[in-house]
Amino acid sequence: MTTGAADVRQKGSDSVETPSGKWRSGENFPVGSLLIRRGLRVHVHAFYRFARNADDIADNPALTPDDKIRRLDRMAEILDGAPGRESPAAAAMRQSLIETRVSARHCHDVLHAFRLDATKLRYRDWDDLMAYCRYSASPVGRQLLDLHGESRETWPASDALCSALQVLNHLQDCAHDYRWLDRVYLPMRDLAAEGIGVEALEKPASCPALRRVIDCTLDRTGALVERARGLPEQITSFGLRRESAVIVGLAVRLLRRLRRGDPLAARVKLRTSDFVAAVATVVTGFSRG
């Protein structure tokens, strides 16, 4: 046990979980929707709550990096079976893992990513960002696939999809993350190549150089989405196959919206019509198949 985690325990039953103040409404993609097998939805929601609450710790601007690490370490301890009521989400996640016999590895991976968020504010290049997504994004898809007993051969396409979703979310929130957390996921090398720094994110609208960096990031993200298009056909579970197809469709639509919109001027997000169209496309495709 780390000393920091022990310090948190000494506070008694006070929760280490804390809201970040970052918006939760209007999630981009379905989480444990009705397409997921009924008996697994509670476990999908447990994992989402665990990851979301850990993310809130990392994103809380009122906490110091050391405090964030202490809280995340305490979540890890409770996840691994330590007694305590400071993290209801970790306790519920532990119970879910016991019931489903899924490894805790994916949970610990996302905690690793949130520890990085607590201390790492810049990313050198695209490879550096993808290394981060290996822990922040890939475990989400892997958890879902393991819950459904899917083959690990699905992991590469799932990792591509989850990384794409992560980067799209970073682009949506690029202004907010910089202004409130001094955190920038746009590769520093790309900004430098255009002769600008992170200060460009302070502006009310993207300058031409920043727009080129965003478009370059979208090009790379589009390549990830293309790699993910084959994921649904690799999945045996009918419900998860349909949900993954809907998510791929939504990723394509959000990518298009970010190409047309300016995330500095206003948050670019999916509309109800995007969800309806993505679901309709999948339903039509499956009915023809």
Précis, in short:
This protein is mainly alpha-helical and 289 residues long. It is 66% helix and 0% strand.
Protein described:
- Helix content is 66%, strand content 0%.
- It is globular, with a radius of gyration of 19 Å.
- The protein contains 14 helices and no strands.
- With 289 residues, the protein is an all-alpha fold.
- The termini are far apart.
- It has helices at residues 3-9, 38-59, 65-79, 88-100, 105-119, 126-136, 138-147, 155-172, 174-181, 188-193, 208-228, 231-234, 238-260, 272-288.
- It folds into two domains: 38-117; 120-289, Farnesyl Diphosphate Synthase (Orthogonal Bundle).
- Helix 2 (38-59) runs parallel beside helix 5 (105-119) and helix 11 packs antiparallel against helix 13.
Fraction of residues in helix? 55-70%
Number of strands: 0
Intertermini distance: 53 Å
Helix-strand sequence:
HHHHHHHHHHHHHH
CATH class of the largest domain: Mainly Alpha
Report Rg: 19 Å
Structural class: mainly alpha
Summed over residues and divided by their number, the pLDDT gives a mean of 90
List segments where confidence is low: pLDDT < 50 over at least 5 consecutive residues: 1-12
Tally of helical segments: 14
How does the overall form come out from the CA principal axes?
A: globular
Please identify, by name, the CATH architecture of the largest domain.
Orthogonal Bundle
Number of domains: 2
- CATH fold-level label of the largest domain: Farnesyl Diphosphate Synthase
The amount of beta strand, in percent, is under 5%
